[in-house]
């Protein structure tokens, strides 16, 4: 036995995970057994060699890791909620009341799920805008940017579908308003609306479909896009911002330096989520009544409000066309341009500064912030 | 040169066409055309009339005043059929000439009743009118003139929110009421009542106003014997209990009006436990000796009501406080509602005078309150546990984050020294 241990130690394998001496023989045996089968030398080697650029804007790079961490929280808490949630009109709301009131730590699991979902979308927005302004999308990271954009859409869809699941008054009517807007999309709108609703109105069929989207379709889509996104980041590394002097950039090891800092951010955010959950547990609301009149001041989740308020503010007719339809087309067109920015920002691809795209980014941030604030400051607009 | 001429031609012909179109669509009404140009007193009716319900149905001034509105000339317009301003004496019959004609009214509003005049003549107002009292209210006093609206319209003088003021125009006038021996306090009293609070503060249009107790066109004060029937239109349960109670026969024998004896009229206060024996608004002592057995029994029950009410308030505050701390308390709130319902039922049972039934319902309320107390205590414990858990978990997570950061810095420094 002793001979075997010594043989393993002295094997000269530079990828060996167990250092000379110090480990208990049985642990070493187990690791050797696993290493032989999993052949993780490549991963260990990558972890040892992988570096991350550190520069004055490094702060923003932690938001990517934070998004991943929050996604993991979503998966874990979401899976726990599945133990009690029943996706039917009769029992959806009651099952949430049961989770919040009767299940030990159910209130915590559900509140963490809801709060971290909202923080996740906020973190995705910050991650996207910081990447945009630092021009992290430029060649050869075009596909990383595009997959990131799809991930934003997927997580917004997660939010929209998850909002209805508790089957409360606000979510019911917000879904009705949201799907009505979807129905306004030229040509495909009415068919899409019927497909998502499972009929002409928000009903039990809608709940089933949103549930299906929330726990099957969207998680699969998220894993696919997240996989590509993370793979590309591993292969290409994190981008260096344009214009930062080389002496101000240094490479730091990903493991443990960057990883530990990432972990410190995660735990701090987790503590913040805990505080929010205890002092502001996610509301259950009143059970949805399809025959009740639409409550005053109905609005979607905060991350949709900039579009919602824009649609409210656009004139009824623009150039003889229906205002809402024009606005929806404009949003779709703007989204497409935003997604394809790596392909039209040629200057950034040549590592040159492009003040125009920076200005576009700032204008978009101001626009989204202003419209969101207007929604909450002037609820009866 | 040709262009200005063309423009002039087009403008003039356009204006003419428009004028002809407009002119041809509206009936001519020379009454309004002239009266709008006269002094204020004569112009005011012409300004109000376009908003009147009769105008909306296409009736012209001539429908009430006669004359020919087609004629431009005043003398021709005021032809033989012209009646001028109808006197107060003529108004009920003038209105009834259409409103009591079922065939005529059907073409405008088939649902509208046509017995207003008949009812009016049975009312105190109508009876005084028939005696030749020209101060008695006639149709226009309640419905207005020239700007008349349907009673369902909020601007109408007879709409629920406006009715007390409309009745008060006469009934709050002490000089006008004096010859009839009527108080002029009714409107003021009503406005201080629980009914007025529901109508004006809660905007509850089902809350009663003058006509709900006195009738509309057949307005008259309810007689002593019929007061209970008036109240039971909205309060059937206490009225039913009262009819089965020993008070019923005693009140009938003594000629005392039922509900009114304890609750009063016009200034009807919200019912309170203090109205029971020994309370601040004791109504029992009006008839019962304070040392009699029934008086003592209900005095004890009042104490019980008082204690339970206080306990319910305190429990409500407890449950609400713990709800604000974020603990799910829907079960406690549901049970609390049950306890309140039993308590309200016990209060209502007072009208039946069965102390046993009241006590039984109070016991039910008490038993439910005990459940709520247990639930509230558990919720408070949970809230405390959450806060303690939060402090521990937050401290742990922040310390962990701090330790990780320090470790990262230490590793970085070591590497820099080696480098």
Describe the fold and architecture:
The complex is a heterodimer of chains A (381) and B (419). In chain A, 66% of the residues lie in helices and 3% in strands. About 3% of the residues of chain A have low confidence. Chain A has a two-stranded antiparallel ribbon with strand order 1-2. Chain A has a two-stranded antiparallel ribbon with strand order 3-4. In chain A, helix 4 runs antiparallel to helix 6 and helix 5 crosses helix 6. With 381 residues, chain A is mainly alpha-helical. Chain A is globular. Chain A has 16 helices and four strands. The longest helix of chain A has 33 residues. About 1% of the residues of chain B have low confidence. Chain B is mainly alpha-helical and 419 residues long. Chains A and B meet through helix 5 and helix 11 of A and helix 23 of B.
Biggest interface pair, residues each? A-B, 24 and 24 residues
Strand tally of chain A, please? Answer: 4
Estimated share of beta-strand residues of chain A: under 5%
Helical amount among residues of chain A, as a percent range? 55-70%
Strand tally of chain B is 0
Element order of chain A: H for helix, E for strand: HHHEHHHHHHHEHHEEHHHH
The low-pLDDT segments of chain B are 21-25
Mean pLDDT over the full residue set of chain A: 89
Order of SSEs of chain B, N→C?
HHHHHHHHHHHHHHHHHHHHHHH
N- to C-terminal separation of chain A?
A: 79 Å
Strand order of the largest sheet of chain A: 1-2
Biggest pleated-sheet summary of chain B: none
What is the molecular shape of chain B?
Answer: flat
- Estimate the strand proportion of chain B: under 5%
Q: What is the CA–CA distance across the termini of chain B?
A: 96 Å
The oligomeric state is heterodimer
Which residues of chain A form runs of ≥5 with pLDDT under 50?
7-18
Task: Supply the helix-strand structural class of chain A.
Answer: mainly alpha
Q: Enumerate how many helices of chain A there are, as a single number.
A: 16
Structural class of chain B comes to: mainly alpha
Reported for the largest beta sheet of chain A, the result is: 2 strands, antiparallel
């Amino acid at each position: 036995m002793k001979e075997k241990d010594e043989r393993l130690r002295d094997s000269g394998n530079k990828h060996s995970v167990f250092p000379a001496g110090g480990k208990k023989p049985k642990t070493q045996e187990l690791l050797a057994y696993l290493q032989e089968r999993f052949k993780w030398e490549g991963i260990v080697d990558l972890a040892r060699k992988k570096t991350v650029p550190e520069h004055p804007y490094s702060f923003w790079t932690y938001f990517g890791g934070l998004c991943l961490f929050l996604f993991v929280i979503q998966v874990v808490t979401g899976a726990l909620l599945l133990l009690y949630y029943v996706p039917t009109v009769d029992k959806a709301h009651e099952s949430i009341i049961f989770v919040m009131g009767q299940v030990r730590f159910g209130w915590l699991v559900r509140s963490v799920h809801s709060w971290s979902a909202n923080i996740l979308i906020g973190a995705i927005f910050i991650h996207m805008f910081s990447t945009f302004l630092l021009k992290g999308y430029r060649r050869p990271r075009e596909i990383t940017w595009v997959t990131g954009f799809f991930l934003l859409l997927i997580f917004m869809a997660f939010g929209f579908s998850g909002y209805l699941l508790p089957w409360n008054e606000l979510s019911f009517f917000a879904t009705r308003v949201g799907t009505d807007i979807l129905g306004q999309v030229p040509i495909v709108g009415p068919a899409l609306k019927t497909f998502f609703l499972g009929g002409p109105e928000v009903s039990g069929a809608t709940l089933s479909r949103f549930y299906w989207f929330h726990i099957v379709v969207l998680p699969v889509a998220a894993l696919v896009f997240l996989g590509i996104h993370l793979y590309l980041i591993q292969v290409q590394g994190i981008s260096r911002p344009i214009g930062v002097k080389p002496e101000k950039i240094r490479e730091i090891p990903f493991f443990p330096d960057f990883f530990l800092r990432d972990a410190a951010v995660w735990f701090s955010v987790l503590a913040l989520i805990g505080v929010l959950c205890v002092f502001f547990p996610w509301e259950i609301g009143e059970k949805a009544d399809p025959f009740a009149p639409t409550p005053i001041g109905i609005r979607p989740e905060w991350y949709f409000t900039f579009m919602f308020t824009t649609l409210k503010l656009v004139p009824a007719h623009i150039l003889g066309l229906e205002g809402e339809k024009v606005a929806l087309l404009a949003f779709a067109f703007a989204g497409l341009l935003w997604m394809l920015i790596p392909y039209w920002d040629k200057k950034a691809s040549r590592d040159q500064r492009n003040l125009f795209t920076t200005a576009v980014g700032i204008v978009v941030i101001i626009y989204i912030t202003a419209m969101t604030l207007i929604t909450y400051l002037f609820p009866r607009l | 040169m040709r262009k200005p001429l063309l423009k002039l031609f087009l403008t003039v012909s356009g204006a003419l066409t428009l004028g002809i179109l407009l002119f041809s669509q509206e009936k001519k009404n020379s009454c309004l055309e002239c009266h709008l140009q006269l002094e204020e007193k004569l112009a005011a009716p012409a300004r109000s009339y376009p908003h009147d319900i009769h105008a909306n149905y296409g009736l012209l001034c001539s429908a009430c005043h006669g004359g020919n509105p087609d004629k431009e000339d005043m003398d021709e317009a005021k032809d033989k059929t012209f009646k001028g301003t109808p006197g107060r004496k003529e108004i009920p019959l003038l209105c009834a000439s259409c409103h009591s004609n079922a065939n005529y009214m059907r073409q405008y509003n088939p649902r509208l009743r046509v017995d207003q005049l008949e009812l009016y003549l049975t009312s105190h107002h109508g009876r005084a009118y028939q005696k030749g009292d020209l101060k008695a209210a006639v149709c226009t006093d309640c419905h207005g003139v020239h700007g008349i609206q349907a009673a369902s319209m909020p601007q109408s003088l007879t709409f629920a929110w406006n009715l007390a003021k409309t009745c008060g125009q006469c009934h709050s006038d002490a000089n006008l009421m004096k010859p009839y021996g009527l108080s002029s306090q009714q409107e003021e009293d009503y406005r201080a009542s629980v009914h007025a609070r529901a109508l004006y503060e809660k905007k509850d249009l089902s809350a009663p106003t003058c006509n709900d107790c006195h009738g509309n066109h057949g307005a008259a004060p309810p007689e002593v014997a019929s007061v209970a029937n008036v109240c039971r239109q909205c309060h059937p349960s206490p009225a039913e209990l009262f009819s089965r109670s020993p008070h019923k026969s005693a009140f009938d024998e003594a000629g005392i009006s039922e509900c009114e004896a304890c609750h009063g009229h016009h200034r009807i206060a919200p019912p309170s436990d203090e109205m029971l024996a020994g309370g601040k608004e004791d109504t029992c002592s009006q008839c019962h000796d304070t040392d009699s057995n029934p008086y003592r029994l209900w005095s004890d029950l009042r104490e019980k009501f008082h204690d339970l009410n206080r306990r319910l308030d305190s429990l409500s505050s407890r449950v609400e406080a713990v709800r604000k701390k974020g603990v799910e308390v829907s079960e406690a709130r549901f049970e609390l509602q049950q306890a309140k319902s039993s308590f309200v039922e016990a209060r209502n049972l007072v009208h039946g005078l069965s102390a046993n039934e009241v006590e039984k319902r109070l016991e039910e309320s008490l038993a439910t309150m005990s459940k709520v107390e247990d639930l509230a205590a558990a919720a408070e414990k949970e809230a405390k546990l959450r806060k303690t858990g939060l402090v521990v978990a937050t401290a742990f997570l922040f310390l962990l984050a701090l330790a990780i950061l320090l470790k990262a810095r230490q590793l970085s420094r070591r590497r820099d020294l080696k480098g």
